[in-house]
Amino acid sequence: MPFYNWLRPAASDDVATLTTKRRAAQKLKALRAALDAHIAAAPLAEGTHRPSDPSTYVRIATWNLREFDSASYGYRGQEATAYIAEILSHFDLIALQEIRRDLRALKEVAKLLGPNWSYIATDVTEGSPGNEERMAFLFNTDRVWFRHVAGELTLPDGQQVTDPFGDRFRVEGGAQLELPDGHTLASPTGLKTGTLASGETKIAEDVEIPLPAGTKIILPPGSAVRFANNARVPITADHGIDIEATATPTLPAAAEIVLPPNSLVGGPEQFARTPFIASFQAGWLKINLATVHIYYGSGAAGLERRQEEIRRLTALLADRARSDSDSDADAYFIVLGDFNIVDHEHDTMAALQTNDFVVPAPLQSVPGSNVRQDKFYDQIALWTGESHRRTAHTRIQPYRAGVFDYFDVVYRTDEEDTYRPFMRKLDADQFYSSYAQWRTYQMSDHLPMWVELHIDFAREYLDEVEADIQTHLDG
């Protein structure tokens, strides 16, 4: 259980501080009771029953902790950090997303959880799509141990994510086009637009305008024609490359057009936020756990990119599982995190359940993991392609699963007046106007999702050994 030493009253505490501490103590007791009741009432996988001994199962969770931690709506207070630690303490191994560059908030939670908890965090994913985020695994070392293997997942050549708009380039100062006679270029009307702080207008949707056949483009200064070593080209008598001596030459097929630096857009890409995989063991069960935060994007192109990232991920992990048949055939692969799944019937869910990955049945009936519980962004999927396994005694056996709504207990919608004094903006004599938004930056705009897996296979192992011995005796 977490350690809440800061709650004990101090001589220097004023009335407001004592009131906050009393409320936090009351809420923590209510939160513990709500979590216990939620887990006890969670749906069971068909044909199973809750094991009476907690040491026979491991409880794995995923939680996107919104910008943990940032100044977007003020940093998290001690009260919120205590609630987060209490929730996490009810699970054994948690994949966390949206951990920010500064690890102080994660370290504070680990400190509250106590010395038997540890964590593994990735480096920051740089760039705009990466949003300076880390991912992390937080685990109870009394229940789970790290198997000393971890790393980022990157896509090999030829299997990267493709841009929905294809390969593109932009020209500094604007591209110059020459259209065929009788043709003009016109933008569609009725576009969604917005206004920047500078007063400039921006479009608020993707727009693609077809170019007529025969359109010519004037390449920017600094462009070149390149022929790679060993390219097959026609050679002139004086050992030059044979290029038509005309104003509009046709280049040999092996020619490549070189554009100035930073002109290319699109093309094959890695994941927007690099997935992270680590190997753990709980009881007899070895788990290779991959955590993700899949690209969201906007419009049809963003949705296609999202689906392709999910498909590429499951293919990569399935290949990895099959290739581990010699070195680690007894470990199971699980992928979990924020997939930005639209709903259970959407193509995004179909993309996740490819390459022998499936979402456990108990999780297919739980509510969504957003605050309104009508979105299904977060998921946990298990790899079921087991033909490579060396042993038969272990298996993936889910028990209960669920999504826990902590806003039923803490930062409730009817408590806005209570928390209004805490909603002051940093270094300003103003307050945030939206309590609904502010409370998601104290807790999160995602709810934790979890599943229990069986980890005690001693009986199955002994049965297997006994059968092997009998085979030897019969032989």
Write the layout of secondary structure elements.
Elements (H helix, E strand, L loop, with lengths): L14 H27 L15 E12 L9 H11 L4 E8 L3 H10 L3 E5 L11 E8 L4 E8 L15 E2 L6 E3 L14 E3 L5 E3 L12 E3 L5 E3 L29 E3 L5 E2 L10 E7 L2 E9 L5 H25 L7 E8 L8 H6 L4 E2 L19 E6 L14 E6 L12 H4 L15 H8 L6 E6 L3 H17 L1
Parallel strand pairs: 1-2, 15-16
Antiparallel strand pairs: 1-20, 2-4, 3-4, 5-14, 6-13, 7-10, 8-9, 11-12, 14-15, 16-18, 17-18, 19-20
Q: How big is the Rg?
A: 28 Å
Strand order of the largest sheet: 3-4-2-1-20-19
State the major sheet.
6 strands, mixed
Structural class: alpha+beta
The tally of domains stands at 1
Shape: globular
Distance between the termini: 54 Å
- The total strand number stands at 20
What fold name stands as the CATH topology?
Deoxyribonuclease I, Chain A
How much helix, percentage-wise, in residues? 10-25%
Order of helices and strands: HEHEHEEEEEEEEEEEEEHEHEEEHHEH
What's the number of helices? 8
Q: Would you mind describing this structure in some detail?
A:
The protein is an alpha+beta fold. It has one domain: Deoxyribonuclease I, Chain A. The protein is built from eight helices and 20 strands. A six-stranded mixed beta sheet has the order 3-4-2-1-20-19, with helices on one face. The protein has a six-stranded mixed beta sheet with strand order 5-14-15-16-18-17, covered by helices on one side. Strands 6-13 form a two-stranded antiparallel ribbon. Strand 1 (57-68), helix 2 (78-88) and strand 2 (93-100) form a beta-alpha-beta unit. The protein starts with 14 loop residues before the first helix and ends with a helix.
